[in-house]
Write a structure and sequence with these properties.
CATH class of the largest domain: Alpha Beta
Number of helices: 13
Number of domains: 2
């Protein structure tokens, strides 16, 4: 009897812990849409006058899961090259604006999107790419509808957004390039690191519990979100970017992702003096140069965007 009591208490504890940590993945605490605009403007990362001067149009794109994806379309007319910018967890599309001039100044159309369950987009939970990959694919379909099937579409993602674009590349071979900035290589591994570093809890016990609860709540296992597994089949050119001083997502993950991509063009840029999602801010000129070289090697627009006043305003 005491054994059964202990077993029951342990089971209830694991289920409760699994529910809590599953919730950190599925329903993270989010920044509001207007709040993120105010943050980016307040920190000088978006110049409202510059933004107002752009031919930006709000768009709503149908998700295959029955909700609408909120987006902002900024066409560079005439252009057959487009980049879709994908933001990180808890934030909104306003966090992607900083990367926009790197492409806009090279003549790319830009599509900024709010991820599922973020910003103005629908979706009852966040799935770290398990469903978001199909949303981004739907956004790519939308872009082709705007620019023609003969156009070139690429993706740029930051943090969770980087994990999403890597997973998208595995299901959409039409993509011409992908830029992955500070992506976690695997959801189970990253959550395990957070459990160990932030909560001092053993990953081997709590990650499986959270994964089981997530399967029951949202229909997927953590093991089904693994960019490092997905990139093994991707032939699309990929530029992997990561800050050398990132203490949130280990920089070695970028090296491992790079090494796991065995087909097609791959490049790795480890940005000096940069923590998580800070590679651009700490190395604007070098980031621009690395990106330009990568795009040229991918058969797209080369050159530099650094000299443009628009990039200065994005700082």
């Amino acid at each position: 009897m005491p054994f059964l009591i202990v077993a029951a208490i342990t089971t209830l504890f694991l289920v409760g812990a699994g529910w809590y940590f599953s919730g950190l993945v599925l329903r993270p605490r989010l920044f509001g849409y207007d709040e993120t605009w105010d943050i980016e403007v307040g920190k000088g990362r978006i110049d409202p006058a510059w933004w107002k001067s752009l031919p930006a149009e709000e768009a709503w794109i149908d998700s295959p899961f029955g909700y609408r994806i909120h987006a902002i379309w900024v066409p560079s007319i005439p252009s057959k090259q487009t980049v879709i910018l994908v933001h990180g967890i808890t934030y909104t599309l306003w966090g992607s604006v900083k990367y926009m001039p790197l492409f806009w100044n090279r003549g790319f159309n830009v599509l900024l999107i709010d991820n599922r369950h973020h910003g103005k987009s629908g979706g009852r939970n966040c799935t770290f790419g398990f469903r978001e990959r199909w949303d981004v694919k739907a956004c790519t379909d939308w872009v082709y509808g705007q620019t023609g099937q003969d156009s070139a579409v690429g993706l740029h993602g930051e943090s969770m957004g980087a994990a999403i674009v890597l997973q998208t590349a595995a299901v959409d071979p039409r993509l011409r390039f992908v830029v992955s900035d500070c992506a976690p290589a695997d959801l189970s591994e990253e959550l395990g690191a957070r459990l160990s570093d932030d909560y001092r809890l053993p990953a081997w016990l709590f990650v499986p519990a959270a994964s089981l609860v997530t399967k029951l709540r949202a229909g997927f296992w953590f093991s089904q979100v693994s960019p490092i597994h997905d990139v093994t089949s991707v032939q699309t050119p990929i530029l992997f970017v990561h800050g050398q001083d990132d203490d949130y997502v280990c920089p070695q993950m970028a090296q491992r992702l790079h090494d796991a991509k065995v087909h097609g063009l791959r490049r790795l840029y480890l940005a000096p003096h940069a923590t998580h999602a800070q590679s651009f801010w700490k190395n604007k000129l070098e980031y621009d140069q690395v990106l330009g070289s990568f795009l040229e090697d991918s058969g797209l627009m080369a050159g530099t965007a650094e000299a443009s006043p628009a990039l200065d305003r994005a700082r």
